[in-house]
Amino acid sequence: MSSGATKWLGDRVRRACTLARALGHGSCGAGLLLLAIGCAGTGTEIHLEPVYSRYATGDGATETDSLLGLLRTRSGKESVWEDFRDLEGDYESVTLGPIVSRDRRPDGSWLLQYAVPLGFTAYRKDETISVFVPLYVWTREPFPEGGHEWKLAALPGLLMRSNLEGTQAGWFPLIGRFEDLFTYDRIVFILWPLFVYAERGEAVSYHFFYPFLGWTRGGGESSFHLLPFYGRAKIENRYDRTYFLWPIFHFNRNHLGGGNEAPEFNWMIFPLIGRTTRGTYEGTTWLWPLFGYARDPRSDFWALDFPFPLVRLQRGPDGLRRTRIWPLYSHLEAEGLNTTSFLWPIFHVRKEESTGGTRDAVYVIPLWQSWNFRDRETGERSKWRKLLPVYQYERRGEWRRGSFPTLDPFWRNAVVDRHYSWLWKLFEWEEEGPMRRERVWGALYRREKDAGEDRKNVSGLWASRRYRADGRRVKETSLLFGLLRWRVTEGEGFDMLPIAFPGPGWPLERVRAPGEIEVEGEIEANGR
């Protein structure tokens, strides 16, 4: 150690011992501890992994990592790991494993998740929805006439709705009366299924011991059914359907509006035989749903089930082709879709073309998932790879990330990845341009790199920081939780740094890359 470093360390020890004696402590060790505490200020990084750590991230935010990753927080720029990376302004998130998480976004919206994936509450643009499966669903949204309207459905059967017109409530299946519920203008039930009354437009319906006895009248609609003996339902210019001894005898007429639309006629003696005709189309079913044949000479369409669902052959207009010999082989060509599977559900190859872009995918269930996507408008390419349980990788434009191992068997799922992957990810990384982030399980090793500087650490035992100052390369090192720190500057040499327990004491404000300036809180290139 140089003479300068020796003198600096000796001065520190003497100050610590003096402090200990002044406070009535008899040991220099106590003074050292008292001197160290508080050296690391609120504006610096703290590395006490795996118990607690605080970082300035390479993508422009501040994160904390506690209890082997069970508790994690983030503030500042939204993570590109999420699906809202284009929002501007500050963003805050807290994640306590699968127990609870909360996000606050710069547009004022927020999301609270709990007992993941069972419950969540979300707020955005004056609308709120709260769900806890299977106990309740609650929504609150602006009412067209002003104020707000809220709805609640909760076990064991509570239904409530409140707006400027008053509050409606019911206890299913005992009693309830509601306006504008689902597709009905009004619905009343008493000891459901004993009695149900419903209005939809001008049509009024009564049901007793639903669905066994009921009728509807009004608005061009009429129906009566006494299940299983007889039923008939008619809507003018739409359909006329009748059954006897349900489900055996059925006689239906559909698409009765006239014009360019041909009417459809079908009948069935279940399950022996059924017949459908519509214009030049005709189809017959035997022993429904096992055997069937349909054809339409005008469109060169035909289909054969022999038996369904094991064997299906289908040909039609616009290149429609389907060949299925389940589970050995299946192939489908349709508008924008070409998919093939072998030994279903194991091997799948799929290509899709849509207005958004083109996607090619290969799945080997449950071990392999992969797709490539090209955005039709921007030309941006993205991809996804997962080899269970070895690794997963994804890319969107210049942004990439990966991790291993991966124990999540589901399709790409941000909720599962965020709340559970801290249990099994031994190593994960993220990269975009000069930004590079790395993390080992429990944050025992972490790297945060951007265009301005590169920071690495192994728990609190060792940490390094590399950057440029006035065009010179600078490297700072911290050992033993910030108790021993020094700096080496190109052309100037070695300097000891003050103690910064629990270390390493790097500032949360990172060094900006050469050629950057700050304009109204944003970083822009200054052209040099």
Describe the structure.
- It is a single chain.
- With 528 residues, the chain is mainly β.
- It is built from 3 helices and 48 strands.
- The strands form 2 sheets. The protein has a 46-stranded antiparallel beta sheet.
- A hairpin with a 3-residue loop joins strand 33 and strand 34 (368-375).
- The longest helix has 20 residues, at 3-22.
- The protein is elongated.
- The model is unreliable at 1-38, 80-87 and 517-528 (pLDDT under 50).
Strand content: over 45%
Radius of gyration: 34 Å
Number of strands: 48
Q: Summarize the main sheet.
A: 46 strands, antiparallel
What proportion of the residues is helical, as a percent range? under 10%
**Uncertain segments of ≥5 residues (pLDDT<50)?**
1-38, 80-87, 517-528
Element layout with pairings:
Layout: H1 3-22, H2 28-36, E1 44-48, E2 52-56, E3 61-66, E4 71-76, E5 91-96, E6 100-104, E7 110-114, E8 119-124, E9 127-132, E10 136-142, E11 148-154, E12 158-163, E13 166-171, E14 175-181, E15 184-190, E16 195-200, E17 203-208, E18 213-218, E19 221-226, E20 230-235, E21 239-244, E22 249-254, E23 264-269, E24 273-278, E25 281-286, E26 291-296, E27 301-305, E28 311-315, E29 321-325, E30 329-334, E31 337-342, E32 347-353, E33 357-364, E34 368-375, E35 381-387, E36 391-396, E37 399-404, H3 414-420, E38 427-432, E39 435-440, E40 445-449, E41 453-458, E42 462-469, E43 472-479, E44 484-489, E45 493-497, E46 504-507, E47 516-519, E48 522-525
Antiparallel strand pairs: 1-2, 1-46, 2-3, 3-4, 4-5, 5-6, 6-7, 7-8, 8-9, 9-10, 10-11, 11-12, 12-13, 13-14, 14-15, 15-16, 16-17, 17-18, 18-19, 19-20, 20-21, 21-22, 22-23, 23-24, 24-25, 25-26, 26-27, 27-28, 28-29, 29-30, 30-31, 31-32, 32-33, 33-34, 34-35, 35-36, 36-37, 37-38, 38-39, 39-40, ...
Helix pairs in contact: 1-2
